[in-house]
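does this look right to u?? G4F version
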Amino acid sequence: MKTAIVTGITGQDGSFLAELLLEKQYKVIGLVRRSSMEDKKFFNIEHLLNNKNFILENGDLTDSSSIWRLVQKYKPEEFYNLAAQSHVGASFTSPESTFEINSTGVLNCLESIRNINPQTRFYQASTSEMFGDNMNAPQSETSIFSPVSPYACGKLAAHSLVVNYRKAYGLFACSGILFNHESERRGEQFVTRKITKAAARIKLGLQKELRLGNLDAKRDWGYAKEYVEAMWLMLQRDTPDDYVIGTGKTYTISDFITCVSEIAGYNLMDYVIVDESFKRPSEVPLLQANPAKARNILKWNPKTDLKELAKIMYQYDLEKEKKYVK
Ligand code: NAP
Ligand code: G4F
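got this back:
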């Protein structure tokens, strides 16, 4: 039985990856940090808590001793680092902690592997945000990085460390440069989930308006459940490498609102108010993946299109919000 450490286990991707690895008969060790809302933090992984191959350990990515202890205890075959301060907008208000988690946190993982168990295969959650304001789309593994947020700067530092530890120390370290991926488990502050939740609440008469920032930015949105398969595939190769993962299609935030409107059966745009406070000091205007390398080498292909994705999310939110209707 293989053992995998997964950081960020309570998040969207961590929970889907844990399910995938358990299905593949792995022992999954999830890193969790203390929360003031202890009863709510397991929402995405509640259904896994009784699985004997699913083990949670306390720690924090920025606390190197907790990472070293974990690698020492389990000497895992695979280590997936999905933990991050993952909200780009929040990185402008908390740049230091974001940078610490998203870059030094990764160094802690790499150093623990290099010193304790160099045969551990490492996956880093890199991001299309690293392309920043590079308008040359579609973006591939060889496109120029031009980050425009503290979040993306921290992720680019981490990405460079992964490349360096692969070259300098021969670690089996891979970065997945993932474009936006969403699901019914997406955090409610990210734009797609904010929209599907609001659409459901407006439909049910629970909300009157939807305040959003920039509606013109373009994103390449896929379904998170499919993207965690790409992470696993990267670590099964003979040689480590970096891969762009995305659909190759790009849409504006307005397009997504139109899509949700069609599913919900009313014009959601009538309820949208553009609120400057949700705009960012600098914006990533255009993301569109060129996932040819992943398609050719990993044999990975996205299956869920934007409309199906919006439907999954909207229907989930509609069911969830119904309990608040009096
Ligand atoms: P998410 O839902 O926000 O989950 C982030 C996870 O990181 C949570 O489990 C969180 O734990 C954990 N975490 C944050 N700070 C930590 C710390 N100091 N120590 C330990 N754990 C910590 O994010 P996601 O959407 O699943 O994304 C997973 C990873 O992929 C992230 O690294 C993100 O930056 C990257 N990424 C995401 C996308 C996307 O579109 N979703 C695209 C490209 C890259 P708590 O529950 O305690 O907060
Ligand atoms: O949903 P978002 O917050 O995602 P963003 O900034 O693209 O970041 C996500 O994807 C990255 C991969 O490219 C990940 F690395 C990162 O961890 C995260 O998962 O915003 C998408 C777009 C932005 O252009 C934003 O300005 O939507 C725009 N937007 C407009 N109104 C809004 C809002 N975003 C949020 N969160 N909230 C709004 O009200």
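Residues 275 and 291 are 34 Å apart (CA to CA). idk if thats expected tbh
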